[in-house]
Amino acid sequence: MFRLYFTVGIILACLTLSACSNEGAAAKEIDYETTKKMVVDILQTEDGKKALQEILKDEKMKENLVINADVVKSAISNVLSSEKSKEMWTKLFEDPKFVETYAKSMADQHKKLIKSLMNDSEYQKQMLELLKDPEITKQMIEAMKSQEFTAQLEKSIQKTLESPLFQAKIQDILLKAAAEQQKGKKGEEGGGGGGS
Predict the structure, then answer these.
(1) Which pLDDT value is given to residue 16?
(2) What sections of 45-146 are H helices per DSSP?
(3) What share of residues in the chain are helix, strand, coil (percent, to 5)?
(4) Distances 196 to 40, 185, 189, 192 between C-alpha atoms, Å
(5) Which of 43, 93, 103, 196 is most buried, by the most CB atoms less than 10 A from its CB?
(6) Which 8-state DSSP code applies to residue 146?
(7) Nearest to 38 by CA among 11, 59, 60
(8) How many CA atoms lie within 13 Å of 62's alpha carbon, on the beta-carbon side?
(9) Is 95 strand, coil or helix?
(10) What is the pLDDT of residue 115?
C-alpha cells in the first residue's frame, strides 16, 4: 500500500511541478519532456504497474472510467456512416467466409425478426405487392432454374426422404391405402357374387 501512495505521490509531484512552472516557453517544453519521460519510466516499473492496477480496481475509479452510452453510440454512428467505413464494410461483405460467419452469428436474431414481421399486416401487404412484381417473378424463376438451386433442392428432398419421421408418415399412408384397396376388393367381390 505504501508503494502505491509513494508512486502516486511521485506522479502527482511531477505533474504539479510541471504545471506550476512560470518560466519561458522553451523551459516549459523541456520540463514537459522531462516530466513525461519520468512518468513513463515510473509507470514501467513494477511498482508503477502495481499502483495502476490497484487504482483501476477501485470502484469509484471504475465508475469514472465508464464511458457514457450516448457518447459511444454517437462515436459508432459517426464511424459507421463515414466513407472509409462504407468501403471497409463493402470489402468485408465480398469475403464469403466473413459473410458466412456474420450470417451464423445473426441467425437467431434474424429468425425472431422474420417471425415478428410475418405477423405484421403492413409487412405482409408489402411482400404480396413485391411478389406480384413481374421483374421479381422473373428473377425467382431464373434462380430456381439455376444449378445451385437444383442441387440444394435435391439435398433437401434427400434429407426429407431419409428422415425417420417422414418415413413413418409414408408407411402410415401406404398402409391406409392398402387397407382401403383391400376393402374395395372385398366390396367388389361381395357385390359381384350376389349378381350371378
Answers:
(1) 59
(2) 46-57, 59-65, 69-80, 83-92, 96-118, 121-132, 134-145
(3) 90, 0, 10
(4) 116, 17, 11, 7
(5) 43
(6) S
(7) 11
(8) 6
(9) coil
(10) 85
Per the domain annotation, does 156 fall within a domain? yes
Dihedral (C-alpha) 15, 19, 20, 25: value to the nearest 10 degrees?
130
Q: Is the pLDDT of residue 80 over 60?
A: yes
Does residue 53 form part of some domain?
A: yes
> What cell was used for 86?
462504407
Angle at 12 between CA 11 and CA 14, to 5 degrees: 65
Buried residues in 168-179 as b, exposed as e (16+ CB within 10 A): eeeeeeeeeeee
Judge whether 30 lies within some domain. yes
Whether residue 120 is contained in a domain is answered as no
How far apart CA 43 and CA 8 sit, in angstroms, is 10
Q: How many independent structural domains does the chain possess?
A: 2
